[in-house]
Amino acid sequence: MRQRVRRMPRRPSLGVDLGAVFDLVGGVLRWIGVAFVVPALVALFDGASVWPWLAAGAAATGGGMLLDLLTHERRIDRIGTRDGLLVIALVWLLVPMFGALPYVLAQEPQLKAPVDAYFEAMSGFTATGGTVVPDVDQLSAATQVWRQLSHWLGGMGIIVLAIAVLPRLRVGGRRLLQSELAGPTEIERLGATIRETARRLWSLYVGLTLVATLVLAFVGWVGLDDAMTPWQAFAHASSAMSLGGFSPQGASVAAFAPISQWILCLVMVVAGLNFLRLFRVLVQRRPRALTRDDEVRLYGFFLASATTLLLVELLSSGIASGESALRMAAFQATSIMTTTGFATADYTTWGGLATMTLLLLMFVGASAGSTGGSIKIVRHLMLFRIMRRDLAQSAHRGVQRPVRVNGVVVDEQALRSTVLFVLLYLFVFALGALGLVIDGERAGVELGAFDAIGSAAACIGNVGPAFGSAGPNGSYADYSNLSTAILTGLMWLGRVEIIPVAVLLTRSFWRP
Amino acid sequence: MRQRVRRMPRRPSLGVDLGAVFDLVGGVLRWIGVAFVVPALVALFDGASVWPWLAAGAAATGGGMLLDLLTHERRIDRIGTRDGLLVIALVWLLVPMFGALPYVLAQEPQLKAPVDAYFEAMSGFTATGGTVVPDVDQLSAATQVWRQLSHWLGGMGIIVLAIAVLPRLRVGGRRLLQSELAGPTEIERLGATIRETARRLWSLYVGLTLVATLVLAFVGWVGLDDAMTPWQAFAHASSAMSLGGFSPQGASVAAFAPISQWILCLVMVVAGLNFLRLFRVLVQRRPRALTRDDEVRLYGFFLASATTLLLVELLSSGIASGESALRMAAFQATSIMTTTGFATADYTTWGGLATMTLLLLMFVGASAGSTGGSIKIVRHLMLFRIMRRDLAQSAHRGVQRPVRVNGVVVDEQALRSTVLFVLLYLFVFALGALGLVIDGERAGVELGAFDAIGSAAACIGNVGPAFGSAGPNGSYADYSNLSTAILTGLMWLGRVEIIPVAVLLTRSFWRP
Ligand SMILES: [K+]
Ligand SMILES: [K+]
């Protein structure tokens, strides 16, 4: 039996338990508040104003504690699916609000407009990496650090959620982790408890970031890449691990030596794998977890195909040759497909084949259970198998065959969820692209249909850079305030995988 | 029990009954052969060579009779689903081959290359209306007539099929008609027999074409539109009824007076309705069949929204104003959404909002049970309802609710078919667009990603004109031979709704 709540009615006439929801959201906000200490310290050493960072941190922690206080003495014995969905939607909506505060408070010249600050913070915490900042090099040190940190924390998001939220849930937790981390695949518990599982994933994430940082810093230290300072090593390692894409360099990864580019390419490939499988391979030393995985094979196939197509374009148009062409092709294919968004070249100057390949890659995404966005590999795998199964059924009616992934039958409910997600994804993408051109017409901004398609795809897919003026050497600064808000919404929807937000619009969600 | 066949083994080791399939395809070819008499007569009066038309007609009729002979004395008591699917795929592949013959034989200057002739014939019989002819006005009279006639016959395709094929089927016929004509909605029999139903639909199609021709000719006769000769009246009325889009005028419908444009707009709106419902309203005088139909409402909503968006673009960019702007917006929205492809203006010069709207409309299509292509309204309706149902299910697990159209529960098998079709459609579209840019790179043709997207969408959707050089004032002549073949394949796949072709690629199709 549940214990009564003092200040909020238990299970109000709404279908969700708002007390439990606020409690969980408050927990996340308190943790995020602590993170502001890092940019505050940077500001201190940089001789800049510290108070915007402290004020934002205090606001987040205070807000979190207030929510906690409101739901004081509440014991959450159970949390329902709907409560969990609302938590996810709210966390990814509210955290970037607090994350945007210091940009406004510090009156960061290129980010002081609230709509721009919110875009940049949303882009950070959703690990999208698109920017409204035309000149990244001019940002203050603290802002630079906070941007990169927001990626890294955002990439940890699910694991933060797993540590702060899931252990408090008995029911729904598994489902939460399932929807957020592992996508539509069956979650495999790595530890005895969910809390233990989450901690291990978090350690893996931290450990891999550390290794990548050290390797990159070493490359700089031995003189192979003079631009790779320890700070740049951490900034890009954390950005790559979160598949975020922010870079303190205006030129993105083009600023670094070939060896650093290859290393970052490898980091993206690894970060684009399912963390549960990575854990089995790296920690439990069971390489079969990767080599025998259907999703890994399709991931490799897509990466190889995309690299080949880009290579053909680069070689035949004479943009690059030799190792340089292979590096540019592999890096850009990996960066866009894993939804990182780094660039080693301005791909907007490449031809139609490269443009089409990169646009299609924005709809591919990395593996489920990674920090990447977009549709994700395992869903494409399931779509292919659903199509094959249902086609066979068109020929032989009455024969009912299951869809398998890794030899295991996927239940029909999971298949329907996959289809639902993909349909919603394409629907929201199309609406977003249409919204951008409508607003472009209203605001008198010249916006081509293709650029709108690219920007909508790059934002809902949490990729970051798109085409045209929003390309890797440009920014989203040209968009009107309303369009910036639309793009912010697309990043949010993409990150929470739409369904947690879309269900809020159904009547039945709010019914008991 | 079946009777034994003499020359072909009954039910060979393949899973399909090729004897029955060839018999049905042969029947269609014999009828198509007769149609060549019309352009032959035109060539005769025009003083041009008659033999290419007679030879093509003889080839089609002879080919059909040969197939009939091969399957001599066969009594088709039953035809399976797979046989029916193969018939559909073959009919739409072979009829355009014979249809293309006279273009090659007559050495029509702009159509003498076989790949171009096949494209043009496929575009005709699939009622797509895209052309590889840069200068339509220079085509011979017989070619002009054959192009328009191929639309009209193509639009009748399903009814020809219904008359020649379905009465011979006991099982599968209903399913055939369902997949071809009514799309995913339940077919409603209008007559006592399927043959009777088909005849009535065919009469309606002929009757509506006649009425539209007479109205347009009357407009020309009373001097309201000097360009509207009786020939132009028939050419455009038949093109509009089949939602085809070929025009003997290089300027398409821009060559005519506003009143003719409004009339053609209305014809397209009517032709884009479900013919089964049109029959109920016009012949059986039951207007509720339309006013109470969910699909009709969504059709109206899409048309009104698209017209509004185009109007906003035209007015705000100052391209047109007043009645002219409304006419251009309504005409173009109707033409592209119903997949006709007529134009009253070169919409490729319009801005991003119009371009995006028109591109999205290419994925909408007309009603099921019309001669239009693309995804079609009722499928969008079902997708919306599937999404709504499955979202509600995400909030309240375990509650299983049916999806209804017009108050009637749609069975889960039909929903799955709808989803399968839409996924296949988008998949083939993406592959087609990618194929075009790959081939563009190979052939050294400058092809932007957006133009490739537009051309693939316009061809698989059986719309016709696209963007860029393939716009309404242009043609597909710039594409390489291989790309022309890709586009021809997309028109074919779109017309047969992919599944009849896609199942041929599954192993189980060919198994008994
Ligand atoms: K990203
Ligand atoms: K058409």
Question: Could you explain how this protein is built, in words?
Answer:
Chains A, B: It is a multi-pass membrane protein. Chains A, B: One of its GO terms (molecular function) is potassium:chloride symporter activity. Chains A, B: The chain crosses the membrane at residues 21-45, 51-71, 83-105, 149-169, 202-224, 251-276, 296-319, 356-378, 419-438, 482-505. Chains A, B: Its main location: membrane. Chains A, B: K(+) binds at residues 128, 243-244, 339-340, 462-463. Two copies of one chain form a homodimer. With 512 residues, chain A is an all-alpha fold. Chain A is 61% helix and 1% strand. Chain A is built from 20 helices and two strands. A two-stranded antiparallel sheet of chain A has the order 1-2. Chain A is globular, with a radius of gyration of 22 Å. The two termini of chain A are 18 Å apart. The model of chain A is unreliable at 1-12 and 160-188 (pLDDT under 50). At the A-B interface, helix 4, helix 13, helix 15, helix 16 and helix 17 of A face helix 4, helix 13, helix 15, helix 16 and helix 17 of B. The site of one potassium ion has 12 residues of chain B, from loops.
Q: How are the secondary structure elements laid out?
A:
The structure is a homodimer of 512-residue chains.
Chain A: H1 18-35, H2 37-46, H3 51-70, H4 81-105, H5 114-125, H6 141-164, H7 173-180, H8 194-221, H9 230-241, H10 258-271, H11 275-282, H12 288-291, H13 294-316, H14 322-337, H15 352-361, H16 377-395, E1 403-405, E2 408-410, H17 412-443, H18 449-460, H19 481-495, H20 499-502
Antiparallel strand pairs in A: 1-2
Bound molecules: potassium ion (K) (2 copies).
One potassium ion binds next to loops of chain A.
